[in-house]
Amino acid sequence: MTEAQAVTGPRRWSALAALAALVVSGLLVVAFAPDDTAGSDIAGDALYAAAVYATVVLIAPRLRPVAVAAIAAGWCIAVELFQLTGIPLAAGAAFAPAMLVLGTVFDPRDLAIYSLTVAVACAIDASIGTVGDALDNALAESTIGLYKTELIKPRGPWHNVHEVDVATAAWVDWYNNRRLHGACGDRPPTEFEALYELGDLISLVA
Fold first, then answer.
1. Cα–Cα distance for residue pair 9/81, rounded to 1 Å
2. Higher per-residue pLDDT: 48 or 201
3. Exposed, middle or buried: residue 11 (CB in 10 Å: 0-12, 13-18, 19+)?
4. pTM of the full predicted structure?
5. Rounded to the nearest 5 degrees, what angle is found at the Cα of 102, between the Cα atoms of 14 and 75?
6. Where are the domains of the chain?
7. Nearest 5°: phi and psi at 195?
8. Which pLDDT band holds residue 121 (cuts at 50, 70, 90)?
9. DSSP-assigned letters across all residues of 22-39
């Protein structure tokens, strides 16, 4: 398994599961909800926008939630505006399943529903985060960047996870115990922490 697979795999599977649940829910709304009611229309629009969001994650799982939201909202709005041409309505009349993707008639209310749903999906996605990265954490992102620059990229290609595990353990030991850090007064983090615990503030700033 590569590093990219370890990072994107869980998020992609989660997106696939969410997409399957959303598709089933959408089909149930189409089959059983009363036609031409505000409730069924809003539910359908919300499920469509959420499904588009999940699809983008499925295709590009390394994208940040904000980027996914921008693409999903852009697609939904573009589809809704495309309905002004009348082409989706004609396509739906000729092939009913096309309506599930392209819709039929433009409704400005749909734009608000799409935007709200995508924003909620983005918030949920961001709160969960992605496995294996340092999303929205500047300090962690900086450390992960060093890790990739100093170890992963120059020492690759890697052949299996065990190789990465062993090399990572050695790198972390070096990083904490021997690597000199400017933010720590050109000391290794363990030495800096020991001085701090002893209350030796003079040595810390020396």
1. 34
2. 48
3. buried
4. 0.58
5. 55
6. 3-128, 138-205
7. -65, -40
8. very high
9. HHHHHHHHHHHSPTT-HH
